């Protein structure tokens, strides 16, 4: 039985190099009655045409289409990010954004994961498939900080295992399985959540004391997510700077340096917001 005003249940999927094959296996294993809306980001060149939605639509039982700005989230459907737009979630609808690139990517995996963590809380599920570097790790950390669930493709199965392996090594993964078996795992998670919801009494969140505690809890979760994001950006800047130094003069070095500059700017902005939020909370507590 649906819970009134509950956040949507979303499976956010991120893939990069080698991701098309992994996504085809993932889509093929999804059951027709999947109770989640599925959102997919595949890192792609900004100006490249995308036929991924058509590929996934043919690969499994769930209908797959390109994401549309403002479209309501619907269980049992797959919506695919389009080139040159971040795919995000606002409330119970999809958002296509021209926000800054992340690691030179738009759409970006971490942008989707962070957005779903914020909009869906504990009802968010993040899935990380084949790819390079550490994309997706900080976004999955944000999902876990809101008590969501994270899943990684088995590195030994992935064509490019770095992305799932880095997330596993960072300790932000709850489950590991093959891409083709993720549908079965998702149904098990749905059944578990349904059983827990039926067993838990409905709380009166309008009670002033409970409401204050809920607000304080969310403040702490947001602060935790910001700290994770700042740390991830700092690590990204260090890695990119090292790669720039190794690359020597040329286009590769310029690209890595651009990533350093972008990560440091984003880290500074988040650090300022984190500091301001902590100050406001201390003043409110006093």
From TrEMBL:
<feature type="active site">
    <location>
        <position position="43"/>
    </location>
</feature>
<dbReference type="GO" id="GO:0006935">
    <property type="term" value="P:chemotaxis"/>
</dbReference>
<dbReference type="InterPro" id="IPR000673">
    <property type="entry name" value="Sig_transdc_resp-reg_Me-estase"/>
</dbReference>
<dbReference type="GO" id="GO:0008984">
    <property type="term" value="F:protein-glutamate methylesterase activity"/>
</dbReference>
<dbReference type="Pfam" id="PF01339">
    <property type="entry name" value="CheB_methylest"/>
</dbReference>
<feature type="active site">
    <location>
        <position position="16"/>
    </location>
</feature>
<protein>
    <recommendedName>
        <fullName>protein-glutamate methylesterase</fullName>
        <ecNumber>3.1.1.61</ecNumber>
    </recommendedName>
</protein>
<feature type="active site">
    <location>
        <position position="135"/>
    </location>
</feature>
<keyword id="KW-0378">Hydrolase</keyword>
<dbReference type="GO" id="GO:0005737">
    <property type="term" value="C:cytoplasm"/>
</dbReference>
<dbReference type="InterPro" id="IPR035909">
    <property type="entry name" value="CheB_C"/>
</dbReference>
<feature type="domain" description="CheB-type methylesterase">
    <location>
        <begin position="4"/>
        <end position="193"/>
    </location>
</feature>
<keyword id="KW-0145">Chemotaxis</keyword>
<dbReference type="GO" id="GO:0000156">
    <property type="term" value="F:phosphorelay response regulator activity"/>
</dbReference>
């Amino acid at each position: 039985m649906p819970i009134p005003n509950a956040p949507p249940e979303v499976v956010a999927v991120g893939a990069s190099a080698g991701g098309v094959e992994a996504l085809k296996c993932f889509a093929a294993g999804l059951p027709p009655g999947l109770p989640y809306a599925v959102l997919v980001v595949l890192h792609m060149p900004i100006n490249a045409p995308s036929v991924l939605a058509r590929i996934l639509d043919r690969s499994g039982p769930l209908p797959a289409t390109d994401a549309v700005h403002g479209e309501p989230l619907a269980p049992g459907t797959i919506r695919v990010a389009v080139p040159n737009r971040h795919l995000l979630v606002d409330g119970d609808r999809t958002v296509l954004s021209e926000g800054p690139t992340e690691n030179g990517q738009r759409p970006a995996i971490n942008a989707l994961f962070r957005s779903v963590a914020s909009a869906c809380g504990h009802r968010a599920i993040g899935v990380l498939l084949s790819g390079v570097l550490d994309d997706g790790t900080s976004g999955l950390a944000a999902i876990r900080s809101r008590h969501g669930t994270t899943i990684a493709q088995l590195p030994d199965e992935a064509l490019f295992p770095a992305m799932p392996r880095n997330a596993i090594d960072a300790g932000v993964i709850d489950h590991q399985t093959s891409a083709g078996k993720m549908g079965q795992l998702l149904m098990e998670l749905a059944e578990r959540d349904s059983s827990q919801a039926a067993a838990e009494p409905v709380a009166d969140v309008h009670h002033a004391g409970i409401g204050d505690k809920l607000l304080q809890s969310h403040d702490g979760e947001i602060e935790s997510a910001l700290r994770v994001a700042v740390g991830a950006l700092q690590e990204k800047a260090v890695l990119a700077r090292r790669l720039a130094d190794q690359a020597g003069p040329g286009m590769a070095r310029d690209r890595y340096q651009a990533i350093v500059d972008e990560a440091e700017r984003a880290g500074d902005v988040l650090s300022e917001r984190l500091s301001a939020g902590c100050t406001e909370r201390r003043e409110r507590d006093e």
